[in-house]
Each structure stands twice: as structure tokens, then as C-alpha cells.
Design goal:
This protein is of the alpha/beta class. It has 9 helices and 5 strands. A 5-stranded parallel sheet has the order 2-1-3-4-5, with helices on both faces. Helix 1 crosses helix 5, helix 4 packs across helix 8 and helix 6 crosses helix 8.
Length: 233
């Protein structure tokens, strides 16, 4: 592997997608290592010490979310990890990935140039030490009271299911609130949003767990329609 190049680990059981990602990223000047499953991914991460991981949500025998947590335990929170998926493509799926603290979430198929651009942006933010992308505590003033409650609970380390139960809202409604929070704060994932909240001293919200705001919907089972298979190549 060429010295000095930024290293990207591509984790996907689809050989065609790995080849496509490798081709485009290497053309853009990155050094790329492929992994087809969780074991290969973890071994490569320890040996390679990548600058970024491109991680499929669905892997053989284990989910990409589990691999994500293991990578975080081994490599720390500073490693940018981008989820990709051709099956988990709904807005709620993307929100779950961002809530975990992922750097980004790409839905297949996507333009290869977009992949290169997002990888460059993510690696550049890490190198420049600008993880919060310029967000300031003043941006919290733009949040609605319910969004402030959600952000404060995230800052306390609550899980998505815990927040939904405490605020008596559905996971889908929670996902919508989180998307609005990320957009208003100008950040890309939960970790960055929580960092802004801590800098602003936002904690211990005055939460009324049995009061629904007008925009909230009652808890209900999420309905998912079958989706056609998507291919990246």
C-alpha cells in the first residue's frame, strides 16, 4: 500500500460493489482495502488503521450495526464510519444509522462521484479536527421545545427506544425530530449533535413524558412495504 495515501476500508459482501468502490476511490487517490464479512473487516481495521470505513448494513451472519459497535470499541469515536445499504433505504433506516453516530449513510445505488465527494469531505473533517463542522451552541436556539428535549436525552446517553418511550412518541416520529435536529445544527450524526449540546450546557430537560405535542403521533407498529432489490453496479 502506497505510503502517505489516506486509507479506506470497504466492507461489503457484494464483490461487484467492492470492485466499483475500489476503482473510483483509487482513481481519486485513496488506498483501498476490501473485506467481505465481519471477521475480515475487524482484522483489516486492526492492521490497516483506516482513515475511513465504508460499511454495508447487511453482512453475512452479522449486521453492519454490530460491526460498527465493534469498530468503535477497537478504533474509538474518531474513526469516520459511513453506512451503505441497498435494502435499508427508508428515512427511518438512515436516521437509525446516524443516531448510532455514523458519519454518513449512503443509499445504493448512488453516483460514484458522490461517494468520492463524501469520503473526501469526511476524511478532510477528521484531518482538520473539525468534527462538528462549524456548528455552534447558538444553533440550539433554532430548535423547537420538543427537539430540545430529544437532543437533551441524546446527550444523556439515552437510546432511541428509551427516548421514544419517555416522550410517548413512535420511532418514526423520533426519527423525524432527529433529522430536523441534525439539519438545524448543521451536523451529520448524533455524536456531533451531542457535542454541540454539551458545549451549550443542554442537559436535564423538563420532559413531560405523557404529553404529546401537536406534531407527535401515537406509538404504532412501523409498516414497511417490500422494496425492489437495488444494485450499485
Amino acid at each position: 500500500m502506497a505510503a502517505g495515501k489516506q486509507r479506506v476500508l470497504v466492507v461489503d459482501d457484494d464483490r461487484g460493489f467492492r470492485a466499483l468502490a475500489r476503482d473510483r476511490l483509487e482513481r481519486a487517490g485513496f488506498a483501498v482495502v476490501e473485506a467481505a464479512n465481519a471477521d475480515e473487516a475487524l482484522a483489516a481495521a486492526e492492521e490497516l488503521q483506516p482513515d475511513l470505513v465504508l460499511l454495508d448494513v447487511r453482512l453475512p451472519r452479522v449486521s453492519g450495526y454490530e460491526v460498527y459497535r465493534e469498530l468503535r470499541d477497537r478504533c474509538g469515536d474518531g474513526l469516520p464510519i459511513m453506512f451503505v445499504s441497498g435494502e435499508r433505504t427508508e428515512a427511518y433506516d438512515r436516521t437509525v444509522g446516524l443516531l448510532l453516530g455514523a458519519e454518513d449513510y449512503l443509499v445504493k445505488p448512488f453516483d460514484p462521484d458522490e461517494l468520492v465527494a463524501r469520503v473526501r469531505r469526511s476524511v478532510g473533517r477528521r484531518r482538520n479536527g473539525s468534527a462538528e463542522d462549524g456548528a455552534t451552541p447558538d444553533a440550539i436556539a433554532e430548535l423547537t421545545p420538543r427537539e430540545r428535549e430529544v437532543l437533551a436525552l441524546l446527550a444523556e446517553g439515552r437510546s432511541s427506544s428509551q427516548i421514544a418511550r419517555e416522550l410517548v412518541i413512535s420511532p418514526r416520529t423520533l426519527g423525524t425530530h432527529v433529522q430536523h435536529i441534525l439539519s438545524k445544527l448543521g451536523v451529520h450524526n448524533r455524536t456531533q449533535a451531542v457535542a454541540v449540546a454539551h458545549r451549550a450546557g443542554l442537559d436535564g430537560p423538563d420532559v413531560h413524558p405523557h404529553a404529546l405535542s401537536a406534531a407527535d403521533e401515537p406509538p404504532q407498529a412501523a409498516k414497511r412495504m417490500p422494496e425492489p432489490s437495488r444494485l450499485a453496479s
